[in-house]
Design brief:
Elements (H helix, E strand, L loop, with lengths): L2 H23 L5 H12 L7 H6 L2 H24 L3 H25 L9
Helix pairs in contact: 1-2, 1-4, 1-5, 2-4, 4-5
Length: 118
């Protein structure tokens, strides 16, 4: 996979996690929201990752993207198929922590800033 595609997948995975957490926390999580989040991972955004390829080492970018994709897919799977409220809450809390981790990694390698332009 081309490095820009890896970076775009990272951005899409973080976006999916954030969208799901926000919808869940506002009691607006629907099957449609989960489907959109899944589609965003399967067909990553075309923009957003370019700057990441300039500031994050390729190996680290690949690791972050791989982890974020897996975590987003796991969250979607649990929310789609599980009725275990405790598991759901644990997954949402973990997703919030992981979003912060990924954004922190991006900031750490980009002079303390999050990219705002594609």
């Amino acid at each position: 996979m081309e490095l820009i595609a890896v970076a775009n997948l990272l951005v899409s995975s973080i976006s999916s996690l954030a969208t799901i957490v926000q919808a869940y926390n506002s009691n607006k999580l629907t099957k449609s929201e989960l489907n959109k989040a899944q589609k965003r991972i399967e067909q990553p955004l075309k923009n957003g990752g370019k700057q990441l390829t300039n500031v994050i080492d390729a190996k680290l970018l690949e690791k972050l993207s791989f982890l974020a994709e897996i975590e987003a897919k796991q969250l979607i799977k649990v929310l789609t198929y599980s009725e275990d409220i405790e598991l759901t809450q644990v997954m949402i809390n973990t997703a919030q922590e992981r979003i912060c981790f990924y954004l922190g990694q991006i900031k750490q390698h980009n002079q303390g800033k999050l990219p705002t332009k594609p």
